[in-house]
Specification:
The protein has 81 residues and is α/β, with parallel strands linked by helices. The protein is built from 3 helices and 6 strands; from the N terminus they run αββαβββαβ. It has helices spanning 2-9, 29-34, 66-74, and strands spanning 11-15, 26-27, 44-48, 58-60, 63-64, 78-80. The strands form 2 sheets. It has a 3-stranded parallel β-sheet with strand order 1-3-5. Strands 2-4-6 form a 3-stranded parallel β-sheet. The longest helix has 9 residues, at 66-74.
Length: 81
């Protein structure tokens, strides 16, 4: 249990609607931290389908669920590994 909780402490989930808090069109782990969307100690972030996105953004090095990725692409954005 201790090992698992240590892993969870470094992972962060981001709601699709929270991407609006990030300035600019490129979203990375660093820009999420700077906007206060994820904790500064997070090592991995994943966008989940919760809420909506109204602008085109590019995710770089940030994971996304299938639904969240589809919503980002539908808004004119893209998801890069």
């Amino acid at each position: 249990v201790g090992f698992r909780s240590a892993i969870k402490a470094t992972r962060a989930e981001v709601r699709l609607s929270e991407l609006a808090k990030v300035e600019g069109s490129e979203i990375t782990l660093e820009t999420l931290k700077a906007a206060g969307v994820v904790p500064v100690h997070a090592e991995v972030a994943k966008v989940i389908l919760s809420g909506a996105i109204a602008r085109a953004v590019t995710l770089k090095g940030v994971g996304a669920t299938k639904g969240a990725a589809a919503a980002i692409v539908a808004a004119g954005g893209s998801v890069e590994a």
